[in-house]
Structure formats: C-alpha cells, structure tokens
Amino acid sequence: MTTGVMRKYEGLFLVDSAYATTNYDEAVAAISTVMERAKAEVVSLKKWDDRRLCYEIKSSTRGTYFLCNFNAMPEMISPLERDVQISEEILRVMVLNAERIPEEILVSATPLERCEKIEAEEAQAEEQDEESLDDVAIDTVED
User: Is 112 exposed, middle or buried, given 0-12, 13-18 or 19+ CB atoms closer than 10 A?
Assistant: First the structure.
C-alpha cells in the first residue's frame, strides 16, 4: 500500500434529472458510495444545477449536476471514474485537480443557490411592498 499525499479535487457528477427528482437521497447516496470506495474525504457535496443535455445520455435528455469538493489520493481517481462508468445512477463525472483553485471559488454559491437567493429576496421585497400598501390603505381609511 502506497502512502501518498492527499490532493484537493473537484468533481461534477451528472445524474438523470427524473431520478434525482424522485430519489434525491438515493442519488446523493450513490455519489457518496463512489467517494467512499475511492477512500475520498468529502469536503462538500451539493446540488449544482438542473439542465437540458446537449445530447441524450443513456436515454436521458435532462441532467442534474452535483458539485463535490473532496480530498483523495491521486491513484484513486481512475478507480473513482471507473466506478461511475459502472454505476447505473450516475451518468457521467468530471474530476479536476483543485489544488490551484482559490478557496473563495471553491466555497462560492452554485447557480442553483444564487437563483434561490434571488427568488427569496424578490419574495421578501413583494411582502414588504404589500405591507406598505396595507399601511397606506389603513391610513386612508382612518382619515
């Protein structure tokens, strides 16, 4: 057994959207299982986005992407990619060396998180507008 140095990696896992929507926990578990088999230390695993695919992959036209930052031995990346090829739940994976990626980029919000934040801010602004209109209506009724 070799004793090497663990390196930082970033993996983008593609899962069929229909499967990820109905079996979200199982999709995450499938990715976690692949990571455990590669003896990787998962730093973060989050849903990145849901997109239409440019071409069909295993009869899937839409895919859900999961972004995973992890530490692993370099010699375990090939077995990880092979496990994904064998997996029925995971369609594809792209693993990049993240040693030179600044930490602020690694922890930045995903497109899905940014959209959810914008939607929450818009909903909050609408609530405040409605409360302002209610206050104006109450003031006019009292006058």
Answer: middle
